[in-house]
């Protein structure tokens, strides 16, 4: 697939029509490509556990995160409402020496490791499955495809495609590097894995390792390696359930058109119904996969069942 850099509107329209899953699972569908992740696929994922070693793929949720305030996205603020000092001073009012601690957190739901829900992106006023966006997401939240519907479904066979190690230099791709289908295929061949229906695919670019070494910089919204717009057909054809990367925006930035903003999102979320994860920490898992040569594993990554949310923090766990 090629696209005219000067005409993102036409390229998006063509890809959206070609890759549409509208109506595939009925008019009332709220899961999109998670429909590909069935009981058999979960059993396949569970059978991959051999060593019992596990990896959290989440970044830390704290004030030292990457957010800079764009569109009111800030880093988490963690506040203690009860402390050990309160208990020691007898300020909590409990009998027989009982004491405790409590805390709260305030944060945008997409400020760190997270899933984009199906109500997150629209295409010309259309939400997933062709529904009018204004009837789906209101001031009360996503009234139809809230991320709570996905909470029980995201567990199955995970596959790591470490494109940074296979294609990059010193394990990292440069900012602005567009990962094509050919690059994904090269990673699969190098790792000896296949990708297909119902898989949860993780794509490592190495950008997170670089910003941890050099500082956050413009990690949140700036230039980054990522999926090329031309991978839309591959994402549709493989029938994967979900895909996640170690970058802020999943697709390559700057985008591949002269005047565009996240065009691949516009195709794959509202038209394809694809679940997308961003800002995942794949470093420890990637190092282990490189050591033992096994790039498939059981992956559980349930979003928080926040009613009406269009995204959710997540602590993905890969088990090998």
Automatic annotation (TrEMBL):
<dbReference type="Pfam" id="PF04199">
    <property type="entry name" value="Cyclase"/>
</dbReference>
<keyword id="KW-0378">Hydrolase</keyword>
<dbReference type="InterPro" id="IPR037175">
    <property type="entry name" value="KFase_sf"/>
</dbReference>
<protein>
    <submittedName>
        <fullName>Cyclase family protein</fullName>
        <ecNumber>3.5.-.-</ecNumber>
    </submittedName>
</protein>
<dbReference type="GO" id="GO:0016787">
    <property type="term" value="F:hydrolase activity"/>
</dbReference>
<dbReference type="InterPro" id="IPR007325">
    <property type="entry name" value="KFase/CYL"/>
</dbReference>
């Amino acid at each position: 697939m090629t696209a005219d850099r000067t005409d993102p509107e036409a390229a998006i329209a063509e890809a959206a029509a070609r890759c549409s899953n509208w109506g595939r699972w009925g008019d009332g569908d709220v899961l999109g490509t998670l429909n590909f992740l069935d009981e058999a696929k979960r059993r396949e994922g569970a059978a991959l556990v051999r060593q019992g070693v596990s990896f959290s793929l989440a970044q830390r949720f704290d004030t030292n995160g990457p957010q800079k305030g764009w569109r009111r996205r800030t880093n988490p603020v963690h506040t203690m409402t009860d402390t050990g000092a309160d208990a020691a001073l007898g300020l909590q009012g409990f009998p027989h020496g009982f004491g405790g601690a409590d805390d709260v957190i305030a944060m945008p739901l997409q400020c760190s490791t997270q899933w984009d829900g199906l109500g997150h992106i629209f295409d010309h006023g259309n939400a997933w499955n062709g529904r009018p966006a204004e009837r789906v997401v209101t001031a009360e939240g996503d009234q139809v495809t809230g991320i709570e519907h996905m909470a029980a479904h995201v567990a199955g066979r995970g596959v790591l495609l470490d494109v940074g190690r296979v294609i990059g230099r010193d394990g990292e791709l440069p900012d602005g590097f567009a990962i094509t289908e050919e690059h994904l295929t090269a990673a699969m061949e190098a790792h000896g894995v296949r990708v297909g229906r119902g898989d949860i695919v993780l794509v490592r670019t190495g950008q997170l390792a670089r910003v941890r070494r050099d500082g956050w910089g413009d990690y949140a919204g700036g230039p980054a390696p990522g999926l090329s717009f031309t991978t839309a057909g591959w994402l549709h054809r493989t029938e994967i359930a979900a895909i996640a990367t170690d970058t802020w925006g999943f697709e390559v930035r700057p985008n591949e058109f002269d005047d565009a903003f996240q065009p691949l999102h516009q195709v794959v979320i509202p038209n394809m119904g694809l679940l997308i994860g961003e800002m995942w920490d794949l470093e420890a898992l990637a190092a282990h996969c490189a050591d033992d040569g096994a790039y498939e594993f059981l992956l559980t990554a349930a979003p928080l069942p926040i009613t009406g949310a269009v995204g959710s923090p997540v602590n993905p766990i890969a088990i090998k």
